[in-house]
Amino acid sequence: MALDFLFPPRCTNCGREGEYICNECLSQASAIKPPVCPTCILPITGNRKCDCRFWQSLDRLSSPYVFQGVIRKAVIQFKFHNLRAIAPFFATLLSRYLTTRPIAYDLIVPVPLHKKRGRERGYNQALLLAKELSKINGARLEAALKRVYYASSQVNSGSASDRRKNVKGAFVCTDSAVTGKRILLIDDVATTGATLDSCATTLKKAGASTVQALTLAREI
Question: Which segments of 69-147 does DSSP mark as H helices, in order?
């Protein structure tokens, strides 16, 4: 692209020219590795309790990386500092992940932003990710969800219980195309999975057969 020639990508971690996360820095990213819960991918330890015990509808959550270090820096630039150009790079990482851990799905659906937050930010990072993944994989994209009330960011919600309350009933389905379909729900980061589960509840009420989520990173 012409813009890449005029303003070549630089690593969001070390500043090296060439890519938004250079190979050296990407090798330092914390990948999520087993043993983990097969449903919510939290590491299995003696004291940890799974988030999925609270889920009502989400069938599974998958994420390649832990939300820390180089990935966290890049996501923050993407989400809060208008680095929209990194979306194709992130989508490539997700596509690579899917080649090693396939997910059966018919439609890609992004997690929506409330229109007020969309105006504040200027874009929906989940929609950008979903669009780029759709281009790579050739999968059908449907922006089938709408957020119907404005609530505080999940990042700013204290407990897991608060996060569940924060998103209960927050979404409606606006597209009958989800009926009978296996949905791949896309977002940038998952915390407890409360937002994803609320989306899944809405999609299943609209007739979706399964809802699995894929995010670039997971808070652990």
Answer: 69-80, 87-100, 115-121, 125-137
Tokens in use for 160?
A: 């897991």
Which residues contact residue 130 at a Cβ distance below 8 angstroms, ignoring those fewer than 6 apart? 108, 109, 110, 141, 143, 186
pLDDT digits (tens, 9 = 90+) for 3-36: 454 578 999 999 999 999 999 999 999 999 999 9
Domains with residue ranges and CATH for the chain: 32-218 (3.40.50.2020)
Cross-strand pairs, 145: 173
pTM for the model = 0.91
Q: 84-121, pLDDT tens digit by residue?
A: 999 999 999 999 999 999 999 999 999 999 888 888 89
Q: Which residue has tokens 């819960």?
A: 37
Residues whose CB is less than 8 angstroms from the CB of residue 216 and which lie 6 or more positions away in sequence, other chains included: 63, 64, 65, 71, 75, 90, 93, 94, 129, 188, 189
